[in-house]
User: Fold Interferon-induced very large GTPase 1 from Anser brachyrhynchus.
Amino acid sequence: MISCQGASCITTFADFLCSKIAPALRHAIYEKTALDIARDMKVKIPDFRGNRSTLETCMLKYLAEEENFENFKHYLNFPGEFLNNYIKTKTYCLGENRRLEMFLRESLTRYYENIQSAVFASTRVVKDRKDRNDKISLWLDEFCRALGDMLSLPRSDLKGIEHQEITDIEFLNNAMTEALSPLIDDLRKEFPHTILAEQFAGCQSMCPFCGAVCTNTMPNHDGDHRVVFHRPQVLTGYRWHKTDNLIIDICSSCVSSDIYFMTGEYRWFQYKRYRDAGHPCSTWNIPPDPSMQAYWKWFVSYFRTQLEQYYNGKFHGRGEIPASWKTVTKQNALTELEKY
Ligand SMILES: [Zn+2]
Ligand SMILES: [Zn+2]
Assistant:
């Protein structure tokens, strides 16, 4: 409960109200701006024009061009974070600061005008109601109603100020206008890029065997997780049991074999019956498919030494890299990616 008197009371009231508006406004504006930028990116940058698989392919091309093992590690271990950075880099190419500033300013202006007109409208309704003593309560009712769906500002959050004895409603109008201005400036300072990444991220679930990220565009989607191509399991560091042999097999081949795998709880299951292993295996659909992208054949051959070092294993024994992989060039890998 706030208590005060006269003009300072009105200022306190306006400040309180703005402090309640701020989080809702911040959320609405960031979301709106993120949507605007996402739409812009879809039009202007080919990487974002297609679906989640297209974006994945673009990231793989980018990684191959850079040929930097550290980047690959980041991509394989923290795909969500990598995507965030990728989006940041790409939007930066668009002249990010200028566009971000432009979209932010546009939605700020729109919301600012709407809030102001809600202030004016409520003042107009309440001003001449000589019959009412609880003018502030009435003003707040009107204000929340006028904001409507634009901002979620529950009337119940404003109970602390509804008993204020403010009689000078015109003055309140001005105080509100004044209190809103710094709020708008604050919003410009820190735009969260993660909210932009959410527009493209889709499902973030990773294959429990090879780490490939589900290509469904919806987070929390119905049905099983899937990917078009699984990858050699060495990409998540798997080795054959009790050996230093890195696993170059792909999950979609394993599921049609008689091979077993061990879960984190040291329980053995046949790949054929991988769903029996429970969560997260049971949430994936991995149909048998022996085809492996040339990309990963190139990657494993090219970064062989780094992979052995990083995962503390060897490409020998059951993990021997087939001679045919070694002849796959980066260009082969990229040309094949173009087809999808
Ligand atoms: Zn997989
Ligand atoms: Zn999924």
Q: What stands out?
A: The chain has a mean pLDDT of 87. Strands lie at 260-262, 268-270.
